Amino acid sequence: MNSVTNGPVHTGQRPVIGICARTAPVTLQGSDLVVALALQSHVAFLSEAGCTPLLLPLLPGVEDLVGRLDGLLVPGGPDLDPALYGEDAHPATRAMSPDADRVELALVKRALDAAVPVLAICRGMQLLNVLHGGTLHQHLSDVTGHDGHRPRTPSFTLGRRPLKLLPGSRIGGILDEDEPETACHHHQAVDRLGEGLTATGWADDGTIEAVEVTDHPFAIGAQWESGQTADKRLHQALAKAAGGAKNNRSPQFLEIERRWP
C-alpha cells in the first residue's frame, strides 16, 4: 500500500488538484506583462504526491470546474476586500481585486458544498473565514503589538512562532510533533471566527493559525506560509484526501469524467 509520502492510493488517472491562480506583473524578454501564476513549490509538492496540479484563473464561471477536481488548494496572496466583511480599508490593507475575490469565494463555496478536499493557505484561510461570515484583523501588529508574524526586514523573511494545535484535530494529526512552529509572513489574521469553522491552531500570542470546516471530510486553513519551506506534509495530506475522494466516486461519474475533453 502506498503511503502519503509516495502519493495517494487511487486507481486510474492521477487526482486533479486545482490551484487558484494569482496575478503579478513581470518583465519577460524586455516586455512588461501581467501573468497568472502559482508558486512552483505548490505545483511540485502536489505532483510529487501523485497528483496533477491545475491552475485555475479567477474568472467568472471557474466554479463550474469543481466537478472535474479531486481537491483544491487556495494559496496566499493579497488582502481581501474589507467590504466583504463589512469594514472600511485599513491604511495598510493592500487588496487584490473585488471581482477576483468574489470569484474565488464562489469557487471555494462550490468546492465545500461538493465535499471536495480543500487546503487554504494564508490569504486562503482568511477567505475561508470570510466565506463563513467571519471577520479579519486588517493589521495584526495593531492587535499583538509586535511584527513577529511579518518581520520588517529589507528582504523577505519568515516569522517563526510557536504553534499550539488542538489535540485530536485533523491538522494536529498531520503535524504530529512535540514543538510545532509556524513559518509565517502575514499582517492580517482571523478576528471573529466564522460559523461552521473550528479553530484548531494558535500562535503563542493567541492569533488563530489554523481552522477546519466542521463536518467536512477535509477542509483545512493554515495561516502560515506552507509551500515556502521544505515541509510538504499539508500538501501530502491534501493529495491523500483527494485520492480518497476520487476513489469514492461512482463508476458512472468516473465514466463521465473519462469522456471529458
Please give a structural write-up.
With 261 residues, this protein is of the alpha/beta class. It has one domain (15-259): Rossmann fold (3-Layer(aba) Sandwich), CATH 3.40.50.880. Helices cover 26% and strands 25% of the residues. It is built from seven helices and 13 strands. A nine-stranded mixed sheet has the order 4-1-5-6-13-12-11-8-9, sandwiched between helices. It has a two-stranded antiparallel ribbon with strand order 2-3. Strand 12 and strand 13 (219-222) form a beta hairpin. The longest helix is centred in the middle third of the chain and has 16 residues, at 98-113. The protein is globular. Residues 1-11 and 252-257 have low confidence and may be disordered.
Secondary structure layout plus pairing:
Blueprint: E1 16-20, E2 22-28, E3 31-37, H1 40-48, E4 52-56, E5 71-74, H2 98-113, E6 118-121, H3 123-131, E7 136-137, H4 141-144, E8 159-165, H5 170-174, E9 181-184, E10 189-190, E11 197-203, E12 208-213, E13 219-222, H6 233-247, H7 251-259
Parallel strand pairs: 1-4, 1-5, 5-6, 6-13
Antiparallel strand pairs: 2-3, 7-10, 8-9, 8-11, 11-12, 12-13
